[in-house]
Amino acid sequence: MSKKKPDNTMNKIVSLCKRRGYVFQSSEIYGGLDSCYDYGPLGVELKKNVKEFWWKHMVQMRDNIVGLDSSILMHPRIWEASGHVAGFVDPLVDCKTCKGRFRADQLESSVCPNKPSKMVSECGGELTDVRQFNLMFKTQMGPVEEGATAVYLRPETAQGIYVNYPNVLQSSRQKIPFGIAQIGKAFRNEITPKNFIFRMREFEQMEMQFFVKPGTDTEWFEYWKEQRINWYDELGIRKENLRFHQHGETELAHYAAAAFDVEYKFPFGWQELEGIHNRTDFDLKRHQECSTKDLQYFDDVTREKFVPYIVETSAGCDRTLLTCLVDAYEEEELEKDTRTVLRLSPRIAPLKAGIFPLVKRDGMPELARKITDDLKQHMMVFYDEAGAVGRRYRRQDEAGTPFCVTVDSESLENNTVTVRDRDTMVQERINADGLLAYLRERVE
Ligand code: GAP
User: Fold this and answer.
1) Is 144 exposed, middle or buried (0-12, 13-18, 19+ CB in 10 A)?
2) Sign of CA dihedral 125, 126, 129, 131
3) Which among 364, 370, 365, 371 is positioned nearest to 410, based on CA atoms?
4) DSSP calls for 111-154
5) Which is the most buried residue in 154, 182, 190, 219, by most CB within 10 A?
6) What are 204's strand-pairing partners?
7) Is 202 near ligand 1, meaning CB less than 6 Å away?
8) Does residue 203's CB lie within 6 angstroms of at least one atom of ligand 1?
9) How far, in Å, is the centroid of ligand 1 from the Cα of 249?
10) What are the φ and ψ backbone dihedral angles of 276, each rounded to 5 degrees?
């Protein structure tokens, strides 16, 4: 038995995602909308599980981090204060020949849309001068276009946290150091979205802003770096596919004094999964200046007043989901054939078990249905009686379901079932009364 990752993994993952109901192209029956994707029945479960796992680690298990869900549309001056109106730009060029639009700093890796396709840098088409293109989506608020207020779809969830910092501080009675976490949609009008759900125009972020006393920021920065890389490990991502990348002077965002990315080794190369930033007091000072509200923290022990520094952990939910799929995807060569298996960690797998009657007669479907209904109260399981049992196992292997429970003739005699492990394919016979405990122990 040998295991290997095929070269065209991305294409295979994209088609598996469609086939098994993980991810679909948005608006597909209208020809699709570039860089927007919809999560199908399994995708939505996987995404929910990834978010819950993040929330558990970042909020539920900590006394000093609380949650927030701020609105996507916010006062437009927030984006002036944050520096996004002036500085959230990418350099853009147009090709006068093919009319394609490209990021000027990524010409080496951009493909000319003219056939036969070449890289833009070698296609010979004349390019316009570089223009700075703001990535924020602008829309208007109010019923009449003239006179309506221009607002932006947020390009990051972080600013919703900063402007709510006094509200959260007062209502939750937290003391520094403490954090505010938020999961939510963000929007960026990316010039060249690519690689499936890796770079989209509408995506979800899982961000946490940790407010600390100036001078302790470096220590907290190191703490969060370690916490975050450990989280991916617990998520089941292989260690050898993760690494840190430190931002050099020219890479640093306008708000950051120091930044490390957690990177994953995707089939298209090492790429950013999460940013960990020391944002200093940049954001709160800017909001203090522009709103004229006092955002200083008063330390009632030392009697000091200061604007807190912020250490941010900013992960992409969709990128994490893609990472889970890529890392779990395997084609396993067996004696007679090859099976595709998604070795997702059981705790995030969309379905925890497939429940099958061996055949559709002799009371097996009835018992399998009853087991399904009982388990459904506790976890996501799936009843399937269609086709040969071997086929049903393979379908669940591809969907990433860690266990398959089969009801056979022996089950009717002595109330036992077989449980097949997705990874080893080994089957174990257990008493049906202990099934819930058996599965719980392995998936929670
Ligand atoms: N608040 C800081 C911030 O937004 P960022 O590095 O620009 O930092 C954080 O974004 C994370 O959001 C990235 O590491 C990535 O996982 C995710 N992300 C950013 N742009 C994205 C896009 N166009 N599509 C999908 N995910 C994206």
Assistant:
1) exposed
2) negative
3) 364
4) BPSSSSP-BHHHH-PPBPPPEEEE---EEEESSSSTTPEEEEB-
5) 154
6) 185
7) no
8) yes
9) 19
10) -115, 120
Give Cα 121 distance to the centre of its chain. 32
Let me know the angle formed at the C-alpha of 73 by 68 and 77, rounded to the nearest 5 degrees. 105
Of all protein residues, whose CA lies closest to atom 16 belonging to ligand 1? Answer: 316
Residue nearest to atom 12 of ligand 1 (CA): 316
What's the pLDDT tens digit per position in 127-149? 999 989 899 999 999 877 776 78
Question: What is the bridge-based pairing of β-strands 297-299 and 304-306?
Answer: antiparallel
The residue nearest atom 21 of ligand 1, judged by CA position, is 199
- Ligand 1 centroid distance, CA of 205 (Å): 7
For residue 214, the model assigns a pLDDT of 97
CA of 316 to the centre of ligand 1 (A): 6
- pLDDT the model gives residue 204: 98
Location of structure tokens 């399904």: 372
What residues have CB less than 8 Å from 413, skipping those under 6 apart? Answer: none
Expressed in angstroms, the distance from the first to the final Cα of the chain is 29
User: Which atom of ligand 1 lies nearest, measured to the CA of 262?
Assistant: 14
Diameter of the chain measured on Cα atoms: 79
Probe target for ligand 1 pocket from 203, 232, 262, 318, with the most ligand atoms within 8 Å of CB: 203
Judged by DSSP in three states, 333 sits in strand
Rounded to an integer, what is the distance from CA 124 to the centroid of its chain?
38
Query: Residue ranges of the chain with pLDDT lower than 70?
Result: 1-7, 147
Residues 55-104: pLDDT tens digits? 999 999 999 999 999 999 999 999 999 999 998 998 999 888 888 888 88
Condensed to tens digits (0 to 9), the pLDDT of residues 152-161 reads: 999 999 999 9
Cα–Cα distance between 220 and 338 in angstroms, integer?
A: 47
pLDDT of 124: 78
Q: Is the CB of 158 under 6 A from ligand 1?
A: yes
Task: Please report the pLDDT score of residue 7 as a whole number.
Answer: 66
Residues in the chain: 444
**Phi (first) and psi of residue 124, to 5 degrees:** 90, -10
State how far the alpha carbon of 72 is from the alpha carbons of 93, 153, 233, 409, in Å.
30, 6, 31, 56
